[in-house]
Structures are given as C-alpha cells and as structure tokens.
C-alpha cells in the first residue's frame, strides 16, 4: 500500500499559488475518467510500440514518453467549429520539437549521432568527427532539433541532433488520417 | 478583450424597472385609470384602433410588454425603452436572440478565451450601454469559469500489464488539462522520487500557465 501523493507538500504548493485543490476518492473512475482513459491509451500504444519495434520491456518508459509526444503533437481532432486542431495547437506549450523529430516511429534504427571529442568512446586523438549508430526513442522537448536515441555500442540513452538522410523512409505515420500535414511547414 | 462577468449585468438589469411592472394589473383601479392623452385621443379620433387603445379591456400585454397608462404610448414603443423596461425574462430572451444572431454573423476567427468569445464585442457594448462599464473594471472582474490550461487532473499509471520490469520503471504520472485534454506522462521508477509535486511543477513550466483548479487522488491506493 503506497500513498499516491504527498498531500502536505501539494497543499502547501496550492496554498502558495492560489490553486483550488479538489481531492478525489481513490479508484473513482467516474471523476477521473479523462485521466484513466488517457492512462489506458498510453499503456496500449506503448505496448504496440514495443512490439513493432521489437524492443524489450525495459524501454517502456521511452515508449510511454514517445507516444505521449506523438499523440499531443500529431493527432488532430475537430473543435466546435469543425476545424482540425492538435492538442499542441490548443495548449501551445514550450515544446521545442519539430515535425521531423516527432514523426519518426519508435525504435527506428539507422540513426547516426555525432559524438563529441571528449566522449569516452573516442579512443584515439584524431580530430575527425565521430559518429555512432543508434535507434530512435523520442523527441527531446526541451532542445530544438534534438532526439533521444539508444546507442548499442555504449548501452545508454543519449541526446543527439536529428539527422535523417531520407525522411521518406520514416513517413509511415503521415498516412494516418488524423495527422495534420500542415505541421510540416513548421519544420 | 478581457471577459467580463455576464451574470452581474443581468443582476443590474433586473434592478431597472419601469412603472409598468410596479403597478399590478390585477387591480381594478389600474384598469379604470385613463390619462388625459387617451381621453383627448379618444375624443379626437373615432377609428377602431383608437377605440381599442382607449378601451381598458384591450390593455393586455402584447409581446410581453405591458403599457403603462401613465407613460405616453410613443415612449413605450421606443426600442431602448422596450429593452430596459421589460421583465427580466423577456430581456434575457431578447439578449439570447441577439447573441445568436451576432454569433452567426461574426467571423469564427475571434479568440475563444471565454464562453462568450464570439460575442464579446457585442456584449461589451451592451455592458457599457447598461452603465456598468464605469463601475466594473477588468481587474475587479471575477471569472466563474476556468480558462483553458488551468484545470488539471493528475493520476498515477502503473505498468503492471507489461509484466515484471528489471529496472523498476513501473509507474508514470500523467497530468492532463481538462479543457484541451493536453497531457504529459512522466515515467518514474518509484512514486516517491521524484515526487508528484516536482513533476507537477515541470508540467506547469512546460505549459507556461497559472493553474486554478487541480484534481488529484487523496486516498491510499495499491
């Protein structure tokens, strides 16, 4: 049995920022219907991402982040006026990703990351650029044109610049009906 | 344009009443009263319309407006007098019809920051015409609705359906805005570190808005 939230800190935060805190009974899916539905959707699509990418389950957190970003940034729905809008367009958060960094399917390989000269994988002292191959995980929301990728040579996640030699190979998601093609112009 | 409090204006309108509403029509003395204008009008004209106007039997409310014999008929038919001298129910119906007409004619590109976003210029005109514009400012207006991005929902999601995970990434916190349904998931190894408060602050920093309402679970859950 674990406590869901530390109510003392949250109460202090809400009192300082004039936030009306409404407490809900646990396991009450009627009140929390939107959140519970979103959690279920994230779980299902994370499983499918792992299955299609042939990734082990330890990449579950990356798949969760990737699907959240993709649904918010790419999936559009109609508003009251019948206009297609994404959740990103409605909220306009401080998101630094672009269409090119988001539209890539989870687990896509053949991504080339540039290593700095101070990286531990750079053995000799030559001044040439070093590159390493990895797989796409998710778009970095805090840095422009950056993605998180998994490098098999040094089993870790690293953030690198998104370099796609042939973007048409990663164009599978653009065939979806709800994807806004106009967002390509923002790139 | 800042949204204003529409309920307050209706309260102000309800305070504006003319003599037609204050005088009860059920009283016999009310029906027996005839003004000097009507007497003169009855004497000077013999048409059927003048007889109907002068006859107290036909003093029935028409279009929800009750004619006060103490006020001239031409003034009671003035549209502004009709607008501000009718009963509150009639005034609400008139404003609703006008609001629908304006909503159909105004372009859809106006900002929808409020429920009356499409009709904000029109309602502001009415608001000023009533006279509250001088007494109510944007700083003192109280909002009875939550603007988009200020009503949050938060809940934990477990990865139990994925099976046993070696690196203990079993939980993720999902924070969602109710109006726009914008959500962000924060995978964590445990529910204690980092705490939900730190992730909530990260979400608020990401959306860049000051939240007003916040729903979260309160009890204990496994």
What's the layout of helices and strands?
The complex is a heterodimer of chains A (187) and B (222).
Chain A: E1 2-3, H1 7-16, E2 20-24, H2 33-53, H3 60-74, E3 76-78, E4 84-86, H4 87-91, H5 99-102, E5 111-115, E6 130-139, E7 146-151, E8 156-161
Antiparallel strand pairs in A: 3-4, 5-6, 6-7, 7-8
Chain B: H1 6-15, H2 19-22, H3 28-32, H4 36-44, H5 48-54, H6 73-76, H7 79-85, H8 88-105, H9 120-130, E1 151-158, E2 171-177, E3 183-188, H10 196-207, E4 213-217, E5 220-221
Parallel strand pairs in B: 1-4
Antiparallel strand pairs in B: 1-2, 2-3
The gist of it:
The complex is a heterodimer of chains A (187) and B (222). Chain A is α+β, with helices and mostly antiparallel strands and 187 residues long.
As laid out across the biggest beta sheet of chain A, the strand order is 5-6-7-8
Would you report the number of β strands of chain B?
5
Biggest interface, which chains?
A-B, 51 and 51 residues
Count of alpha and pi helical runs of chain B: 10
């Amino acid at each position: 049995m674990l406590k869901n939230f530390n109510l003392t800190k949250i109460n202090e935060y809400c009192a300082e920022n004039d936030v009306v805190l409404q407490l809900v009974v646990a396991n009450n899916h009627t009140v929390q219907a939107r959140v519970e539905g979103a959690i279920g959707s994230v779980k299902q699509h994370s499983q499918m991402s792992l299955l299609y990418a042939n990734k082990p389950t330890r990449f579950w957190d990356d798949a969760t982040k990737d699907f959240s970003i993709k649904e918010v940034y790419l999936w559009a729905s109609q508003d009251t006026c019948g206009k297609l809008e994404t959740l990103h367009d409605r909220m306009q958060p401080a998101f630094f990703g672009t269409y090119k960094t988001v539209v890539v399917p989870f687990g896509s390989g053949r991504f080339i990351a540039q290593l700095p000269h101070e990286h531990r994988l750079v053995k000799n002292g030559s001044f040439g650029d070093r590159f390493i191959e990895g797989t796409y995980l998710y778009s970095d929301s805090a840095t422009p044109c950056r993605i998180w990728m998994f490098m098999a040579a040094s089993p870790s996640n690293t953030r690198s610049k998104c370099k796609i030699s042939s973007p048409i190979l990663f164009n599978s998601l653009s065939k979806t009906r709800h994807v806004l093609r106009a967002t390509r112009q923002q790139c | 344009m800042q949204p204003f409090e529409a309920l307050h204006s209706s309260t102000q309108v309800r305070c504006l009443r003319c003599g037609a509403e204050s005088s009860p029509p059920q009283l016999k003395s009310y029906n027996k009263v005839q003004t000097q204008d009507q007497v003169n009008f009855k004497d000077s004209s013999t048409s059927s319309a003048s007889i109907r106007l002068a006859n107290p039997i036909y003093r029935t409310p028409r279009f929800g407006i009750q004619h006060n014999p103490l006020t001239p008929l031409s003034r009671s038919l003035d549209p502004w007098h009709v607008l501000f001298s009718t009963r509150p129910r009639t005034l609400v119906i008139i404003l609703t019809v006008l609001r629908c007409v304006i909503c159909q004619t105004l372009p859809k590109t106006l900002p929808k920051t409020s429920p009356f976003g499409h009709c904000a210029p029109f309602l502001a005109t009415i608001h000023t015409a009533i006279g509250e514009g001088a007494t109510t400012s944007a700083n003192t207006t109280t909002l009875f609705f939550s603007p988009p991005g200020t009503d949050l929902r938060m809940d934990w999601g477990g990865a139990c359906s994925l099976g046993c995970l070696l690196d203990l990434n079993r939980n993720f916190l999902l924070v969602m805005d109710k109006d726009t349904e914008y959500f962000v998931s924060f995978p964590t190894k445990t529910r204690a570190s980092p705490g939900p408060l730190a992730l909530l602050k990260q979400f608020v920093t990401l959306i860049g808005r000051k939240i007003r309402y916040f729903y979260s679970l309160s009890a204990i859950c496994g």
